């Protein structure tokens, strides 16, 4: 049993010794999520490049990657620095490069011997990258971002002129490594058939773009696709060389709403203390407000709106229909889902509860560390994580 | 001119040397917001206890407080520790106390000689606090939280039995310092008359509760009210002894929508780089997604929906109708407001823009420091801030 602290017994699970709110990570669920996705990607016979933007932790990364040096994907150059410094050398920075960030990219490559690649989708970026590579003598690896579904960035897969133009400009000074896609619209789906179609659309767009480049005599050794929903639902990945995914590691209520995981698979939760009650309104007040949960309301657009999170007991078992119905900065208001016939549990002041988040990436970013629960459900370790840029 | 960095000239404003996204703080606007609220509160002849939950920075606190030792309000015990360690000794922790946090409160009081007060609204908390005070010999100062408008926590001002019961239990071991209210429903208003009425309702509820305590022979030396909207709109504060407010320091688009500040008063903005374009969709893509802006969509419920933020040029001048229409983790999608007849500005890849946030508390919490713009608009200093619990 952990040592008593702050006047209360820590309990057999050690949770009573933690300051609330804090972030819990269930190591067994994490491990199961990791091996499930690894098996899924291996079944397709393609390489796996996990996205470290959700966890931002070397401890999680070492469990998730196929080797201690990568491959891995990052969403910020701060992540690239953090992971490269810790031995992860095969990295793709999967957000369109701004030219004034190239010197920082070069420093990470040089200082850590990292094979850090960038992505882009315009002639202007391609020219800037090529010019930078020629000037510095560092032949930067570059992916052309291709847009499979109109979600965000990327060249349309059928825009052969633009693909060739970018490819030629990149290859004139830098290293054209391939194409990279992210089927972000899949987050709006929940039907398995539609998700399989989204995965197929992502695959087909990738191949179309890759073939355009190769037909123009340009190299395209890597064809990279990925999102947690499409990686989970792809029927096959013929022609694809690597898959990326990130939020699958932890899972969350949005992914459960999509069907990429079950509620019981969610590996992160926020530990909170009950600090008050409003029986006249049916409210239980906790110290986990939106600062602790994030402002993410991703389930609001899904079939089941989970408010700011689904409330579980200290052992992680969900209460029937009890959600974080409202949130202020440091106050969470627990209430039964509208129309629920469930009984509101009796949770005296000081009771510890665990809250499953809508969006693991957003919630985890509110914390500097994970309190890791071992296979006996005991808070056994603290794993740091990074934030910022 | 700041030193060139990352291959680009920093520019006369020094902004080109900063990594994007980052958080800018306009010192002149901050100072004007601070003096405006100070004058408003002084006009009412009451003490001012600024809330440090928005800024979480000792540099900002020292400008905002009436003295270097406080008074001040905090929303977490981590803030209390941080500010007490830096000389702020008169502190109210304005979130209902969980009994297992009392030892941490006691450590802050003892270690820094801080007069750190707590708040509560139940018999169970009152008994726990009194018992703790008797056991430790530290007579903890306690406010009874009173609910003026059904927003969140607090005893109803007319519930005389509960007020007396809590007051008697507190006074049996700890120090009953008074009542504390927060008119949180005022955030949903925008009409100046309605805001003045909300301020009057907060005042009246405070006096009713204070009179109930005093009629029962209980002490109530401090009568504390506050929210940025009510503090800005109160007609008078007779009978009130102190006012609290926090977000007024920076202002934000939600406060501008309420009428507590003008858009031109907003002191914080996110510096972002343009990283791509989707002319077919009318989109400009930046590197400031929801991780940089927060997921707060507080203006969605107001007359003018600002998306994830209002876009300004590098000098801070808003573009006509250009907002962050969508956001992914590290991508912001700029687009004209729906139905706008404005011309989309030409912003090539690499252009720096500044984005005004919906909610300063949420956006600032995504950063570890402020890049402070001096009166010439130059990035002249870096002020650290804290996050977490």
Automatic annotation (TrEMBL), chains A, B:
Ranges annotated as spanning the membrane: none
Family of this protein: Belongs to the DSD1 family.
User: In the UniProt record, does the keyword Lyase occur?
Assistant: yes
> In this record, what's one Pfam family?
Ala_racemase_N
* Residue span(s) of domain D-serine dehydratase-like: 267-374
Q: What is this protein called?
A: D-serine deaminase-like pyridoxal phosphate-dependent protein
Look up keyword Flavoprotein and say if it applies: no
Query: Would you say which domain of life the source belongs to?
Result: Bacteria
User: What InterPro entries would the database entry show?
Assistant: Ala_racemase_N, D-amino_acid_metab_enzyme, D-ser_dehydrat-like_dom, D-ser_dehydrat-like_sf, PLP-binding_barrel
């Amino acid at each position: 049993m952990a040592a008593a602290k702050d006047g209360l017994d820590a309990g057999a699970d050690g949770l009573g010794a933690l300051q609330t709110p804090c972030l819990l990570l269930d190591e067994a669920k994490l491990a199961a999520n990791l091996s499930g996705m690894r098996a899924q990607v291996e079944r397709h016979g393609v390489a796996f490049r996990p996205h470290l933007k959700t966890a931002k932790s070397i401890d999680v990364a070492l469990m998730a990657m196929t080797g201690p040096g990568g491959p891995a994907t990052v969403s910020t150059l701060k992540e690239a620095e953090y992971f490269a410094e810790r031995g992860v050398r095969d990295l793709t920075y999967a957000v369109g490069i701004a030219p004034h960030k190239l010197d920082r990219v070069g420093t990470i490559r040089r200082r850590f011997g990292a094979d850090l690649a960038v992505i882009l989708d315009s002639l202007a970026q391609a020219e800037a990258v090529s010019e930078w590579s020629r000037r510095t003598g560092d032949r930067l690896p570059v992916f052309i971002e291709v847009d499979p579904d109109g979600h965000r960035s990327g060249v349309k897969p059928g825009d052969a002129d633009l693909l060739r133009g970018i490819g030629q400009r990149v290859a004139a000074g830098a290293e054209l490594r391939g194409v990279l896609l992210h089927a972000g619209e899949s987050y709006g789906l929940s039907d398995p058939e539609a998700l399989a179609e989204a995965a197929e659309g992502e695959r087909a767009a990738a191949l179309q773009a890759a073939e355009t480049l190769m037909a123009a005599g340009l190299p395209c050794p890597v064809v990279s696709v990925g999102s947690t929903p499409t990686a989970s639902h792809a029927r096959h990945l013929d022609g694809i060389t690597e898959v990326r995914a990130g939020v699958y590691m932890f899972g969350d209520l949005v992914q459960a709403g999509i069907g990429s995981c079950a509620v019981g698979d969610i590996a992160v939760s926020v530990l909170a203390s009950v600090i008050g009650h409003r029986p006249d309104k049916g409210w239980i007040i906790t110290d986990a407000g939106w600062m602790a949960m994030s402002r993410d309301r991703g389930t609001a657009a899904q079939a089941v709106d989970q408010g700011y999170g689904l409330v579980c007991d200290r052992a992680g078992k969900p209460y029937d229909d009890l959600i974080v119905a409202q949130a202020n900065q440091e106050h969470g208001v627990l209430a039964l889902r509208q129309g629920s016939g469930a009984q509101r549990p009796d949770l005296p002041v000081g009771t510890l509860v665990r809250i499953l988040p809508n969006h693991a990436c957003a919630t985890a970013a509110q914390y500097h560390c994970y309190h890791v629960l071992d296979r006996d459900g005991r808070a056994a370790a603290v794993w740091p994580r990074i934030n910022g840029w």
